[in-house]
Design a protein that fits this description.
It is a single chain. The strands form three sheets. Strands 1-2-3-4-5-6 form a six-stranded mixed beta sheet. A five-stranded mixed beta sheet has the order 9-10-11-12-13, with helices on one face. It has a two-stranded parallel sheet with strand order 7-8. By secondary structure, it is an alpha+beta fold. Helix 6 (about 210-220) runs antiparallel to helix 7. The protein has a single domain (about 30-250), classed as Ribonuclease Z/Hydroxyacylglutathione hydrolase-like (Metallo-beta-lactamase, Chain A), CATH 3.60.15.10. It has seven helices and 13 strands.
Length: about 250
């Protein structure tokens, strides 16, 4: 009888903890916590932040470009640099002074400058960079700043007591576009491979349009429990961004 009561207590306690955790997620309200002319930082969960910088283009005007910061125990990892060195300096300063955190790594998810345009500043500050091997090849071909460390299919890095995953699933926006995943908060950073709802197809100069939907379908299958999805441009959302991107590029 005592064992039975003890087991009931353990079950109820576990359910209470899970309920509190779920409630915290549901109650979290995203908020803009930093804004200047060149950089915006929006907190989207307890330990994750979107950094948004800007790129002036001929075809699409002044385009906001997203990256992601994830944090645990005074350590962070950054997916995609801001678009230039000035904004990258600003971002690194903000993380150091406001999150009081060390930056363990920066991970550009493809070779365009809205992904690695400010990489040199991270290198200057001895912050290691990691990228898919094809991203490194394309950066070299285009005489861009080259990420220091390569991975072939995927890499797992520690951030505090948690981990992140960077992985290549296939071609789409470019032939090197990888994604980032933060399992502890079920957050997916899709970069320019994923589109915000109602977005157009955007720049296709380096794209493999015929492979795009298939690549995103693989991601959707791999991460069925994803809760927050961050695209390279525009508003973040849920797994509906995966479905929208798949439909947008689906070929007959």
């Amino acid at each position: 009888m005592i064992v039975f009561i003890k087991n009931i207590f353990i079950i109820l306690f576990s359910l209470s903890i899970m309920s509190c955790s779920t409630q915290r997620k549901e109650n979290f309200k995203a908020k803009e916590i930093y804004k200047s002319e060149t950089l915006i930082i929006t907190q989207i969960s307890e330990n994750s932040y979107i950094h948004t910088s800007f790129k002036q283009t001929n075809d699409f005007g002044n385009v906001p470009c997203n990256g992601l910061i994830v944090k645990n125990n005074h350590e962070t990892i950054v997916f995609d640099t801001p678009t230039n060195n000035q904004s990258s300096e600003e971002l690194i300063h903000w993380i150091t002074e406001n999150l009081h955190s060390k930056i363990n790594a920066v991970i550009p998810t493809h070779f365009h400058d809205d992904s690695l345009g400010g990489l040199q500043v991270f290198h200057n500050k001895k912050i290691p960079s990691y990228a898919y091997s094809e991203t490194i090849s394309l950066a070299k071909e285009n005489n861009f700043v080259v990420p220091e460390n390569s991975f072939n299919d995927s890499i797992v890095l520690k951030v505090g007591n948690e981990k992140i995953i960077a992985r290549f699933f296939g071609e789409g926006h470019t032939k090197d576009n990888s994604i980032g995943y933060f399992p502890s908060e079920n957050i997916l950073f899709g970069g320019c491979l994923l589109k915000e709802l109602e977005a157009t197809k955007g720049y296709l100069g380096d794209a493999n349009v015929s492979a795009w939907s298939t690549t995103v379908e693989k991601i959707r299958k791999e991460y069925p429990h994803v809760e927050i999805v961050v695209p390279g441009h525009g508003e973040y959302g849920n797994k509906g961004l995966l479905d929208y991107t798949i439909e947008l590029f689906k070929t007959q």
